[in-house]
Write a structure and sequence with these properties.
The complex is a heterodimer of chains A (about 270) and B (about 260). Chain A is mainly alpha-helical and about 270 residues long. Chain A has twelve helices and no strands. In chain A, about 80% of the residues lie in helices and about 0% in strands. In chain A, about 40% of the residues are buried. Helices cover about 45% and strands about 25% of the residues of chain B. Classes of the chains: A mainly alpha (about 270), B alpha/beta (about 260).
Chain lengths: ~270, ~260
């Protein structure tokens, strides 16, 4: 082995250490949250009630009214993927408040004073939102089966649903983190969180098709990443539904938005400690 | 060689000069105390040294590394215990340490042993698998010091380590800090506004007031410096931080004065 080859090997080793270190630490931050959930899973149980109510109350009524054109699927079928998207959104959108909480406790300072890449902290936190989101997916699948929603049991489609839930939870929880980093206080964050959730949910295709909306609202709905998440979920969860956009476009939109937000989050996160 | 080196460090916020051109050195193996009333700039100084806050001007080095340009190297050689009780209450003591062992790149084959050794050193072995929520204040503080020691840092930063602790817990924390110095020769940089804490632990202290270093030296040197026989450290503190309080007269200053008065009581 020449000297140069040896040097290259050494460099590659350092590189791979940085690379694997990044993954190990990202998973460590997610593990921290997962262990918390393991010790106190009540949150997961109480979280399960809201989607059940939407499906039972809203879904059952609107299925009978037949006011919303849903093509060849029943309204309840149409709505189930939308409610999954909604649960992931609601879990993720208040995630940022934990950053403010952890700042007050000095936990943020401890992370930042350790050799943990900022990107790992932000992505690890986001992945823990994904864990919560997946538990919701499981619950909604169970409810849907009980309520008679015709769900697609194809393994590849289920893997697709898992991927969409993971990516969307990263997207909305990091969005929440970015807002928390900007507003910095609990009170302001709660106000803005409430303000954003309502239009994000209703200006999307979650519980009715975009084509029903007035034109100005259609533009907003098409800029809303939630619409692409729901579009993908519908195509993957329902056997007889073809997506509005090609699946690859849906995945590209939510993945790229998530990636962008994670980078912005990693830049803003250290400012929380100042 | 000094292990912490601060040269004309300045940190300005919008209207306030929190740190106003301070310079000092901390030698290897000493316990150094930064004393001062609330709002004197102690925590800001510690945040700069632990790479959490970029200084406005001036330079600081920890373990020979520049805190701005070599921040990631600094983070590998420091341990930091923030002022608030920051251990995670919903996890066990062991889990709190495990997470930080991973974040500090402690190899998986020695991780468990290292955690056990530190729990033992801190006298927490029996409580390792209890949820931290059920710990007393003193136990949480010890656990946090344990978290900061996992990677065997060159400098340990303690920000107001005994605020809010009862006298027994405070004594326990003091004992462990002393043990760290005696057994491992660890350098400790701490802030406090308790005089008896500084007197008990610190080899050298600096009194900080309104962002400036008002006095620096051993406790004995400072006592002698105010020209009063048998002076207490309290009197030294008031001498160096009190003289400027009257001149300001803002609400914050008077609130601060009252607080000191209350404490000296």
């Amino acid at each position: 082995m020449t000297v140069r080859e040896q040097e290259k090997l050494q460099k590659d080793l350092v590189k791979s250490n940085i690379f694997s270190g990044f993954f190990v630490k990202t998973l460590t931050i997610a593990e921290l949250e997962a262990r918390k959930l393991k010790h106190d899973p009540t949150e997961l149980i109480t979280r399960a009630i809201q989607p059940l109510l939407w499906l039972l109350v809203f879904g059952e009524v609107f299925t009978r009214i037949r006011a919303i054109p849903t093509g060849n699927v029943s309204y309840l079928d149409f709505m189930a993927p939308g409610i999954l998207a909604q649960s992931v959104l609601f879990i993720s959108i208040f995630y940022g408040i934990s950053i403010i909480w952890e700042r007050d406790l000095g936990i943020v300072h401890k992370f930042l004073a350790s050799p943990t890449p900022r990107l790992s902290i932000v992505l690890g936190k986001a992945l823990s939102a994904s864990i919560r989101g997946l538990s919701q997916a499981l619950i909604i699948y169970i409810f849907s089966l009980i309520l008679g929603v015709k769900i697609n049991g194809n393994l590849f489609d289920i893997i697709g649903v898992i991927a969409v839930v993971i990516i969307s939870a990263i997207l909305f929880s990091t969005f929440s983190l970015v807002i928390a980093c900007i507003v910095r206080t609990r009170e302001r964050f709660m106000g803005i969180g409430q303000l954003l959730t309502m239009p994000m949910f209703f200006a999307s295709n979650a519980i009715y098709p975009i084509s029903m909306m007035p034109e100005w609202l259609q533009i907003i709905a098409k800029l809303n990443p939630l619409s692409y998440e729901v579009d993908a979920l519908r195509a993957l969860m329902l056997p007889n539904f073809s997506s509005t956009y090609p699946l690859i476009i849906d995945f590209a939109v939510i993945s790229l938005t998530s990636a962008g937000l994670v980078v912005i989050g990693a830049i803003l996160y250290p400012r929380v400690a100042r | 060689m000094a292990i912490v080196e601060i040269r004309s460090l300045v940190k300005s916020f919008k209207t306030l000069k929190a740190v106003d051109s301070i310079s000092l050195n901390v030698e290897n193996g000493e316990i150094f105390g930064l004393l001062g009333p609330n709002g004197a700039g102690k925590t800001t100084t510690v945040k700069i040294l632990t790479t959490l806050l970029p200084p406005t001007s001036g330079e600081a080095f920890v373990g020979g590394f520049n805190v701005v340009h070599e921040a990631s190297k600094v983070r590998r050689v420091i341990g930091y215990v923030p002022q608030a009780l920051s251990a995670d209450g919903t996890l066990t003591g062991y889990e709190n340490l495990l997470i930080f062992a991973k974040l500090y790149d402690i190899p998986s084959n020695v991780r468990k042993q290292r955690i056990m050794d530190i729990l033992d050193f801190m006298g927490l072995s029996e409580h390792a698998n209890k949820l931290v929520r059920n710990y007393s204040g003193g136990m949480i503080r010890k656990l946090e010091v344990a978290q900061a020691l996992l990677h065997n840092p060159k400098v340990l930063f303690l920000d107001e380590p005994t605020v809010g602790l009862d006298p027994v817990a405070r004594q326990v924390v003091w004992d462990h800090v002393t043990k760290l110095k005696n057994e491992f020769g660890m350098t400790i940089f701490m802030t406090t506004h308790y005089m008896e804490e500084a007197e008990m632990l610190c080899d050298r202290v600096a009194i900080m007031n309104l962002g400036k270093i008002a006095a620096i030296g051993t406790v004995e040197e400072l006592k002698n410096s105010i020209g009063k026989a048998n002076a207490t450290l309290d009197e030294v503190f008031v001498y160096y931080s009190g003289s400027t309080l009257d001149s300001g007269g803002s609400y914050r200053d008077s609130a601060r004065t009252r607080k000191i008065a209350k404490r000296l009581g």
